[in-house]
């Protein structure tokens, strides 16, 4: 299958040139954001807005600044420009990598309880989050080092859900997960999103899943960032331009 999409004349660049209009229900507004490390500019003039309950996918080649942007959004990286969260927003962040040793002698349950303690969330949030992501209680009682890639990603998702965020920021939800597991994980995220009325901002390399699940797509890469619907952004022309090379992806049947 080939990607469906608008022609090259589609308005792909609407954000960088003109900020997205403020709407009722906008969760975050980002305008002219830039990030540099020393003399190296990683992000320049990034702008977009995310409406409540929608899914923004951030795509782009390795090193294009996707993780840096997520970290800027949660305030972990200094930036230029403005990032305005709606009052009352609570974010849950799932990093791409965890800076903990997987062979630490702690169980999934311990891990979730630690988050509840830090977030001052009630103990029942742990069970609730675990059940939401369909992680079996006996799996959560195992040491984190023996969990499969898919189980570990579910644990990370549960970790982010403890404290009841209104927005989930997810860096590569399917890293270390096989292809059927990726679909299942996206289904789970989608289900949790609908049930909890969450807004999702996720970084992904899985363009077919992005096509299926995202409401809007922000593409970082060579040239100016582009922002639009999956149909507008995920065209062979745009992808080739942003990645610097043609990228093939398959659209799964619904
Ligand atoms: N704290 C930091 N100090 C210096 N440079 C950094 C720092 N964090 C990220 N970078 C650099 O910023 C650039 C973008 O990194 P980032 O991790 O955001 O890329 P990415 O698009 O998420 O890549 P990937 O798809 O490989 O995960 C890289 O060149 C990286 O080395």
Can you describe what's shown?
Belongs to the ABC transporter superfamily. The protein is α/β, with parallel strands linked by helices. The chain folds into 2 domains: about 1-90 and about 165-254, Rossmann fold; about 95-165, no CATH class. Helices cover about 35% and strands about 20% of the residues. The protein is built from 10 helices and 9 strands. The chain has helices at about 15, 65-75, 110-120, 125-130, 135-140, 150-160, 180-195, 205-215, 230-235, 235-245; strands spanning about 25-35, 40-50, 55-60, 80-85, 90-95, 165-170, 200-205, 215-220, 225-230. The strands form 2 sheets. A 6-stranded mixed β-sheet has the order 5-6-7-3-8-9, sandwiched between helices. A 3-stranded antiparallel β-sheet has the order 2-1-4, with helices on one face. β6 (about 165-170), α7 (about 180-195) and β7 (about 200-205) form a beta-alpha-beta unit. The longest helix has 18 residues, at about 180-195. The radius of gyration is 18 Å and the shape is globular. The relative contact order is 0.21. Bound molecules: adenosine-5'-triphosphate.
């Amino acid at each position: 299958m080939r990607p469906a999409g608008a022609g090259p004349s589609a308005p792909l660049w609407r954000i960088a040139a003109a900020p997205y209009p403020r709407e009722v229900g906008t969760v975050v507004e980002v305008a002219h954001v830039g990030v540099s490390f020393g003399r190296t500019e990683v992000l320049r003039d990034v702008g977009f807005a995310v409406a409540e309950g929608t899914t923004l996918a951030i795509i782009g080649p390795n090193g294009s600044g996707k993780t840096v942007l997520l970290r800027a959004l949660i305030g972990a990286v200094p930036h230029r420009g403005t990032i305005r969260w709606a009052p009352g927003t609570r974010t849950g962040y799932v990093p791409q990598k965890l800076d903990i040793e997987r062979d630490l002698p702690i169980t999934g349950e311990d891990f979730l309880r630690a988050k509840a303690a830090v977030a001052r969330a009630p103990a029942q949030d742990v069970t609730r989050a675990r059940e939401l992501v369909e992680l079996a209680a006996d799996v959560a009682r195992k040491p984190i080092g023996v969990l499969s890639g898919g189980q570990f990603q579910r644990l990370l998702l549960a970790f982010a859900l403890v404290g009841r965020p209104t927005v989930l920021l997810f860096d590569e939800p399917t890293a270390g997960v096989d292809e059927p597991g990726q679909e299942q994980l996206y289904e789970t995220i989608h289900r949790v999103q609908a049930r909890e009325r969450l807004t999702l901002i996720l970084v992904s390399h899985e363009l077919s899943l992005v096509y299926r699940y995202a409401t809007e797509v922000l593409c970082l890469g060579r040239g100016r960032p582009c922002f639009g619907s999956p149909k507008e952004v995920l065209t062979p022309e745009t992808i080739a331009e942003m990645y610097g090379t043609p990228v093939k992806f398959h659209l799964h049947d619904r």
